[in-house]
Amino acid sequence: MKKLILSIIILSIILVACNNEKGNKLPTDAINISATADSSNQTNQANPAIIFEDDKHNFGIIKEGDFAEYSFKFNNTGDGDLLIANAAASCGCTVPEYPKGIIKPGEHGFIKVKFDSKGKVGMFEKTITITCNTEVRETVLTIGGEVVE
User: Fold this and answer.
1) Architecture in CATH for domain 2-148
2) What is the pTM of this model?
């Protein structure tokens, strides 16, 4: 029964994602997999857990106009399937890329962050908020450094 419910949820998520205007994120309410489970069986519910090797990265000094990239590695240390619904940056100069599929327990993945330093001379610190189906729904990653002319 759980497999049937999970299959229906995954199919619904795929259909919703295909109709999403931006096409690059899932609605955050779609990741609440445990909400559709039988409440009497909550103790047996499998739970994903996302653990990042680092949640901060300092690029150091970079030249204005350059693009700086970094990949934050994470692991699903839980016992349920991990689904990342969204990765949102605090600024348009920072673009995150994240895996769109399911990350099985024990598997790892990367959140790739690309920072455009054009017109950003000086110190900077940007955040990327990761939304997923873990107990704590949001995780914040941080990049920083200094842009010189």
Assistant:
1) Sandwich (2.60)
2) 0.71
